[in-house]
């Protein structure tokens, strides 16, 4: 494709060299440049892509998109200067790939918690309704049954356009994607045309990246500000910021709620270890998912399907049979009836929700003994440190025993992270906590502490199959380790 066609309807500040140059691929990484490449120089959090323009040119780049021309330009290379190269890259990528997002129904899900759950439930529901579907999520990307590993919650905009093109070729009519706040700020959704946007909730997370809670809210809202008038914006009005999200959107405003008047209204009748019994728009339904937070997820999925023109009764029938996504409130039960729950709760709000749910659904055993709640939890390294003491405190407040352990220490010292968590434990709770750096040992200790009917929550890693320590990802799977510990217990 010629360079000028890539910039169709995009405003430019200046150009140098031929706009008829043929472009065969796009990249923002100088290490992936070759002849025919348009190299996009993006300012990052660690370095500035503009520092790599010369390297890209020496590797054969045919053109460069940047915010500042380099002091020396190569006459055989075309240069294009714009105000914001990250944003422009999104628009260029959409042109390069032929606007795949406009040829399908692309639905974005944003919020602190619930994005993977909602996107995955929508993907499964719409496949059940008979459509070919795509999924872009933290756990994995999917084109119907074909699984493509995911590196981010929201991929970079070039990868997204590539994946959407593959989905289109496969015949996908509906694609569900997570929209992280990082992605909005870094323009990873620029140029995508959404048919709908969903807001789940907003609570404490990622303040390391956004600086303040207001900036974090603004980042999430940025997604709705970008929606076209043809789209719908579906928000959770029970969240304090639910309506804020829709303040400046051009999209059609729709709401869901468990507490107040809304386009889609739900009510929990019963919540147990076996599932949720709810009224959805006055129809009674049983779901296999557990917990109040899943009542919200189900309601947003139901609302989205109805807004996309599906039959409400058929949607509810299919949703009632759907099982949880991997690592979201997944249960493993030992032979002697200890209940293990593996859950991806890695934020204070998620941890509290999951523990509240466990507290609500636990029942005294046959001898009238109240089961203990034993929580194993850690906090990620090179991530928001402010949540560490808060999460330890929440774990203590809702559990009988707490084991503080590691969760992807990355490049930080695991013991320092644990000390920051310990700082949140109030003196009355000291006695119920132990700190065990090694996650496998921590899970095994929890199992050795448990008695039949006790509930062990292993929080934070969910579907993850690794423990990342100093740049190396070691095999680690909470579900498998829990199962291993249960069978060792059975053999004793
Ligand atoms: C903090 C963050 O979001 N970083 C993302 C960002 O990287 P960066 O800003 O550090 O980039 P940089 O290293 O400064 O480089 C700037 C530019 O120079 C280029 N470069 C760099 C070196 C070189 O030799 N040549 C070269 O061209 C880079 O390709 C880049 O374009 O842009 C990269 C390219 O898109 C991302 O891969 C990277 O994600 C990192 C790996 C990451 O861990 N991101 C996490 C925090 C993240 O995005 N998480 C959210 C989910 C959060 C949630 O809701 O839970 C997600 O959507 O996944
Ligand atoms: N609607 C919800 N409200 C609050 N907590 C939720 C909700 N849905 C799920 N959770 C909790 O949050 C955890 C993470 O859920 P999920 O993976 O769906 O969120 P996410 O927004 O995709 O997270 P990430 O930012 O890592 O992509 C779950 O394991 C569960 O504990
Ligand atoms: N999307 C989140 C996932 C955190 C999962 C947790 N296990 C951790 O490693 O901190 C992040 O990258 O911040
Ligand atoms: Mg996710």
From TrEMBL:
Binding site for ATP: 111-117
Subcellular localization(s) per the UniProt record: Cytoplasm
Listed pathway(s): Cell wall biogenesis; peptidoglycan biosynthesis
Coiled-coil regions listed: none
Gene3D superfamilies: Mur ligase, C-terminal domain, Mur-like, catalytic domain, MurE/MurF, N-terminal domain
A Pfam entry, by short name: Mur_ligase_M
Residue positions, PTM N6-carboxylysine: 220
SUPFAM superfamilies: MurD-like peptide ligases, catalytic domain, MurD-like peptide ligases, peptide-binding domain, MurE/MurF N-terminal domain
InterPro entries, alphabetized: Mur-like_cat_sf, Mur_ligase_C, Mur_ligase_C_dom_sf, Mur_ligase_cen, Mur_ligase_N, MurE/MurF_N, UDP-N-AcMur-Glu-dNH2Pim_ligase
GO-annotated biological processes: cell division; cell wall organization; peptidoglycan biosynthetic process; regulation of cell shape
Keyword Membrane applies: no
Location of the Mur ligase C-terminal domain: 327-462
Required cofactor names: Mg(2+)
An example Gene Ontology molecular-function term: UDP-N-acetylmuramoylalanyl-D-glutamate-2,6-diaminopimelate ligase activity
Positions of the Mur ligase N-terminal catalytic domain: 23-96
UniProt keywords, alphabetically: ATP-binding, Cell cycle, Cell division, Cell shape, Cell wall biogenesis/degradation, Cytoplasm, Ligase, Magnesium, Nucleotide-binding, Peptidoglycan synthesis
Binding-site residues, UDP-N-acetyl-alpha-D-muramoyl-L-alanyl-D-glutamate: 30, 153-154, 180, 186, 188
Chain ranges of the Mur ligase central domain: 109-303
Processing and modification events after translation: Carboxylation is probably crucial for Mg(2+) binding and, consequently, for the gamma-phosphate positioning of ATP.
UniProt binding sites for meso-2,6-diaminopimelate: 383, 407-410, 460, 464
Chief location bin: cytoplasm
Motif Meso-diaminopimelate recognition motif location, chain numbering: 407-410
Function in brief: Catalyzes the addition of meso-diaminopimelic acid to the nucleotide precursor UDP-N-acetylmuramoyl-L-alanyl-D-glutamate (UMAG) in the biosynthesis of bacterial cell-wall peptidoglycan.
Homology family: Belongs to the MurCDEF family. MurE subfamily.
Protein's UniProt name: UDP-N-acetylmuramoyl-L-alanyl-D-glutamate--2,6-diaminopimelate ligase
Gene coding for it: murE
